């Protein structure tokens, strides 16, 4: 471990030892470095400190509830997500109508859609829509409703019915937690309806999830592993984990 990085992390751990949280900018000021340096320390060095919602917390502190922060998620495991999306793109065919889920995992996929001559993308995520809107070969269907800034996505009571009226070839679904016993889950309850509708409607259902999500349970359950045809992941242990509950139609695709 880099000595200066270790010293900064030790200083932050001491500041958090009594519980509570520390804002990222305050942590940077305390250590006399930039916020990016603190982010780099936390992402590259082993530490009991976690960055959640722009605040530093001790991972073992019992009073802390995880907070979903899209900006933080976008910078987390980015290279892994890029590889996952390259693998997921291999399942896309010309003329497909794709349901693309919200969150950060599938964002690297969007730059790969330009190589297709004709696609339709259905989404309820503003960040997905913004990226797809500039692609002349992609027809965009943006599902609206109440906007949730934390996940850059929309939600409405009628969204599920709107999705079910569409002919979706492939649903590309992301998740914040995958557990063999408790199923597949996410942070936000407004995402449950569109995810479930897309899974029910699509001809093929792909779960794209990195290894850090395995063994994790988040508040909003939306599917069982049996609901998917393919799991795209980077974890070589995934087949073994899923063998506990044999799924005859499920295949594992490693990035």
UniProtKB/TrEMBL annotation:
Residues 5-57 form the HTH deoR-type domain. Coiled coil: none annotated. SMART domains: DeoRC, HTH_DEOR. It comes from the Bacteria. InterPro entries: Carb_Metab_HTH_regulators, DeoR-like_C, DeoR_HTH, NagB/RpiA_transferase-like, Tscrpt_reg_HTH_DeoR_CS. Pfam families: DeoRC, HTH_DeoR. Keywords: DNA-binding, Transcription, Transcription regulation. This is DeoR family transcriptional regulator. It comes from Vreelandella lionensis.
């Amino acid at each position: 471990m880099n000595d200066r990085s270790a010293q900064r992390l030790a200083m932050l751990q001491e500041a958090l030892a009594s519980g509570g949280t520390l804002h990222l900018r305050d942590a940077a000021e305390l250590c006399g470095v930039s916020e990016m340096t603190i982010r780099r320390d936390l992402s590259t060095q082993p530490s009991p400190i976690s960055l959640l919602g722009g605040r530093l917390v001790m991972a073992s502190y019992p009073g802390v509830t995880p907070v979903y922060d899209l900006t933080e998620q976008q910078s987390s495991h980015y290279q892994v997500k890029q590889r996952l999306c390259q693998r997921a793109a291999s399942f896309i065919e010309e003329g497909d109508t794709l349901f693309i889920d919200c969150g950060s995992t599938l964002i690297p996929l969007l730059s790969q859609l330009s190589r297709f001559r004709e696609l339709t993308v259905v989404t309820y995520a503003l960040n997905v829509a913004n990226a797809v809107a500039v692609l002349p070969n992609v027809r965009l269907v943006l599902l609206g409703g109440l906007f949730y800034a934390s996940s850059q996505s929309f939600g409405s009571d009628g969204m599920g019915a709107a999705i079910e009226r569409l002919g979706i070839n492939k649903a590309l679904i992301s998740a914040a937690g995958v557990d063999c016993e408790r199923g597949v889950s996410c942070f936000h309850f407004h995402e449950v309806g569109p995810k479930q509708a897309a899974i029910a409607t699509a001809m093929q259902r792909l779960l794209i999830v990195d290894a850090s999500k395995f063994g994790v349970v988040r508040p909003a359950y939306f599917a069982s592993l049996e609901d998917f045809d393919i799991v795209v992941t980077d974890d070589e242990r995934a087949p073994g984990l899923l063998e506990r509950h044999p799924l005859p139609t499920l295949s594992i695709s490693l990035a």
